[in-house]
Design a protein that fits this description.
Blueprint (H helix, E strand, L loop, with lengths): L2 E4 L8 H8 L2 H17 L8 E5 L2 E8 L2 E10 L3 E10 L6 H20 L2
Parallel strand pairs: 1-5
Antiparallel strand pairs: 2-3, 3-4, 4-5
Length: about 120
C-alpha cells in the first residue's frame, strides 16, 4: 500500500487539505475517492485520474460537472506521495502560477527533509 501526505506550509497549515475542505460535499467526496485510488494503485494509477506534468510532478485529476479539480503531487522516497497544491483548472494547460507554487513547495519540502535527522 502507498501512503499520501499533505504538504505542510507551516505548523498545522496544509494547503491541499484546506483546498479540499473548501469544496462542496460532492466534489470533496470525489476528490477523497481519487486520493484513495492513488493510495491503492500508486504509480500504476493512470488516466483519467493521474497524469504526468513535468519532472517529478504529477497531476491528480477529478471532474464534477464542468469543474476540473486538480492536485499536483510528487512521489517522495519510498512509497509516499506528497500533495503539494490544489486548484480548479480553468484552461487546457496548468497555469504558470499553479506550477510555480507546486515547484516551490516541492523544493521547500525536499529541503526540510534533507535538514531533518
Amino acid at each position: 500500500m502507498w501512503s499520501v501526505e499533505y504538504y505542510e506550509v507551516r505548523e498545522e497549515s496544509y494547503p491541499v487539505k484546506e483546498f479540499i475542505d473548501s469544496l462542496d460535499i460532492k466534489a470533496k467526496a470525489k476528490m477523497a475517492r481519487t486520493i484513495d485510488l492513488l493510495e491503492e494503485f500508486g504509480i500504476d494509477l493512470g488516466m483519467p485520474y493521474a497524469e504526468h506534468v513535468e519532472g517529478k510532478l504529477w497531476e491528480l485529476r477529478t471532474r464534477l460537472s464542468n469543474n476540473r479539480y486538480r492536485v499536483i503531487y510528487f512521489l517522495d522516497a519510498g512509497k509516499t506521495f506528497i500533495l503539494l497544491h490544489g486548484f480548479v483548472k480553468k484552461t487546457e494547460k496548468i497555469s504558470k502560477s499553479d506550477l510555480e507554487i507546486a515547484r516551490n513547495r516541492m523544493g521547500d519540502y525536499l529541503s526540510k527533509r534533507r535538514q531533518s535527522p
